[in-house]
Specification:
The structure is a single chain. This protein is α+β, with helices and mostly antiparallel strands. It has a single domain, classed as Beta Polymerase, domain 2 (2-Layer Sandwich). Helix 1 packs across helix 2. The longest helix has 19 residues.
Length: 114
């Protein structure tokens, strides 16, 4: 499975849990840390955890991969799943605005997600 299919699969898993403002950014040409960054928003601790779990389950079942590292899932203000070529960030709105990763990765190429 290619990495573009993987990021779209993760985005659909976010969308199934009603994540807001899903952004997919290809950073392959501007960074060596990963190929894709997915940024999405959950409106509460419970929703952030739910979105994170949905992504983990979807990628495990359909792509047979697990995150190399997970951060922030218990606190659920900003959860991160690191799959190597894909980094998934699930924020609560105020934390997302504070860190503004979209601006940080503005040199990357956005992929439209309906």
């Amino acid at each position: 499975m290619d990495n573009k299919s993987l990021v779209l699969m993760a985005a659909r898993a976010c969308d199934e849990k009603k994540a807001k403002e899903i952004k997919l950014i290809n950073i392959n040409n501007v960074s060596y840390i990963s190929e894709w960054i997915l940024i999405a928003e959950g409106l509460s601790d419970v929703q952030v955890r739910s979105i994170t779990n949905s992504v983990e389950i979807e990628l495990k079942e359909k792509a047979n991969i697990e995150p190399i590292r997970k951060e922030g899932v218990n606190e659920a203000k900003w959860a991160l799943l690191d799959y190597g070529d894909l980094i998934v960030n699930i924020f609560q709105p105020e934390i997302r605005k504070f860190y503004d990763l979209e601006s940080f990765w503005s040199n990357g190429n956005d992929l439209k997600f309906p």
